[in-house]
């Protein structure tokens, strides 16, 4: 898995500036794996709170009784709930807040970035893999846990914007 960003080493945050990480990548690229590795390297007090108070993934809202049940009719609502939770975590001063969505196009992450900057957080983007690489797309189609087929992965990859 290629990650074109900084290492997963622990971060030092102070009381005036936390860290907001905005994940980017195709389904199955390894975004959630990267988050788990990154958080495992943080201080105990950060690890203990993170998955309850600092981690926001729209996909997580589609789970019912531990089964992923995607419903396109709820996608907009769930994206809004995810953003609202992210902003609440920023406003309460969580030291690390992560948005773990695909964020392939610039507009998808703009509200997250704006909120984080407005509340004094450092913002870092983490792109996992190369969405334009056909071998990466095929791997993502095989590996993603939500059954997203290669044809949809390719459509998503075509919406990828460098920024």
Order of helices and strands: EHHEEEHEHEHH
Count of helical regions = 6
Estimated radius of gyration: 15 Å
What gross morphology would you assign? globular
Instruction: Count the beta strands.
Output: 6
Name the helicity range: 40-55%
- Protein structure class: alpha/beta
Keywords:
163 residues, two-stranded antiparallel sheet
Briefly characterize the structure.
With 163 residues, this protein is an alpha/beta fold.
Annotate the secondary structure layout:
Elements: E1 19-24, H1 31-40, H2 44-53, E2 55-56, E3 63-64, E4 67-68, H3 75-91, E5 96-99, H4 106-118, E6 122-127, H5 134-143, H6 150-158
Parallel strand pairs: 1-5, 1-6, 2-5
Antiparallel strand pairs: 3-4
Helix pairs in contact: 3-4, 5-6
Structure explained in plain terms:
Strands 2-5-1-6 form a four-stranded parallel β-sheet. With 163 residues, it is α/β, with parallel strands linked by helices. The two termini are 20 Å apart. Helix 3 runs parallel beside helix 4 (106-118) and helix 5 crosses helix 6. The model is unreliable at 5-10 (pLDDT under 50). Helix content is 42%, strand content 13%. It has helices at 31-40, 44-53, 75-91, 106-118, 134-143, 150-158, and strands spanning 19-24, 55-56, 63-64, 67-68, 96-99, 122-127.
